[in-house]
Amino acid sequence: MSLLRVENVSKHFGSLVAVDNISMTVEPGELRAVIGPNGAGKTTFFNMISGFLLPNLGRIVFDGEDITSLLPARRVWRGIARTFQITEVFPELTVRENLRIAVESASGFRLRVWQSRDDDGEVKARVVDLLEMSGLTEKADRLVGELAHGDQRVTEIMMALALKPRLLLLDEPTAGMGDQETYDITQLIRKLHHDQKLTIVLIEHDMRVVFHLADRIMVLAEGKMLAEGTPQEIAANEAVQAAYLGKVAA
Amino acid sequence: MIENDTGRKLAVLVCIWAALLLAPYWMPPLGGYTALGTRVLILGLAAMSVNFLLGFTGVLSFGHAAYFGLGAYGAGLSLKYLAPSTPISLLMGMLLGGLAGAILGMLIVRRRGVYFAMVTIAFGQVFYYIAFQWSSLTGGDDGLRGFSRQPLDLGFFSIDILSNADNFYFFVLFCFAIVVAVMGFILRSPFGRTMLAIRENERRARFLGIPVERHIWIVFTASCFFMGFAGALYALLNNFADPKGLHFSQSGDFVMMAVMGGMRSFWGPLLGAAVFVVLQDYLSSVTVNWMSFVGLLFVLVVLFFPRGLLGVVRRKLVS
Fold this sequence. Notes:
heterodimer, A: 6-stranded mixed beta sheet, 9 helices, globular, B: 15 helices
């Protein structure tokens, strides 16, 4: 059974049709990339999957369950985690605290008003694991707001991972990063995909990253689906080339 | 480094509690009097309750005096009509403030920022006018009189907290310590960290699976219980409750104490309340326009020390 099924969703903002009748099916363990020129509706599409926006039309099914109008927090509880195009972290808390909040939320400790300090060894151990995986161990006790952009981005991805998601949504994970950082983060995503068999959907502008990582690619343009297929198929697709080169696709 | 940090924190805590415990002995030589210390504790507790919501969850209520005032009326009415018992009056005051907060909280947690503040003012004013109009029960504009705090009956002996100001101070300090300990424990718990998460980045908190509205409601309700408790103590201090305690200008005073003292710090609001109360006590005997001076100080603090007075002290200590 497919993990995520998006069926004919549309989103309007007034008279602007941001997403027009798009469907997508993601299988467990798949890494799907969503690409397209600016304003193609990629982020809007993402926002509907994560619950940030509700679609005007269509249906979203996750693991056999209709989640079309579920609140964001409830989608997280079912296993959907996401990052944002503009990094969303807790800037005035340390890396460790950022991760700890995520781990505690995932463990269902959100409402615990007792248990002070560090008495939960499991939480602590998981935070240490995440820090090691991210390579941020040395910066663990620095405020996230003071870190370089790339490290903040990695922190955000680690927070999403702390939720033990079954579906990870990454909105332009390499945006604003240098070559080395882009390489590092690509390796990290690759590892998550290959080693942990995590299902990932990502939006990305950097084509090297997309063609390096994706099992399948979906191309959006002006809110519509332009093409869908393996990286080889997409690379050979004339309509896609036209959209990216700015020619009129006939 | 980290050990140093905990050591310093412990030292600061010891200093604070020592100063509070010994206040009846060091205040009079400095020109103060014990009841002034009691006032600082009670208003400080109220400011800390406001700050529980404002400083740690990032939600500004401008109507928290309503729950303070409800606590005061709850305690007064309980003493006058229900039972001549100080503990029961405190319980009733806390329940009245807290339950009102729990119910109204459900209606306002979906609002944010300015809208949240406006709605809290509006609900607060509703209680003000009820207290003002319902003279037969509340005494209207004259306030609620005809009750006084009762001796604490501990079975084999009783403590006079009515005529002995020191005894009453220690009783208030004891109550203060309990509530402050509860606040401290909550802030250190996983739930407390979700509060910080909401303050720091509501969107991230939501997408970490934290149901933001529900958590804000819980914090709002808790802070209203604390507020009601402080209000009940205030009624016991004055043996009097009046509608001004519910008015939004009183809410403004609490917010001012919290911001002036330092809203990101746990103890800041207590310092803010101390400065506010002492200035008020001293200046109001000199001029009726004492508030303009407090206001001036407030503006200066906000402009030059955005972390509040305690923030300044802390920086001095660190460097």
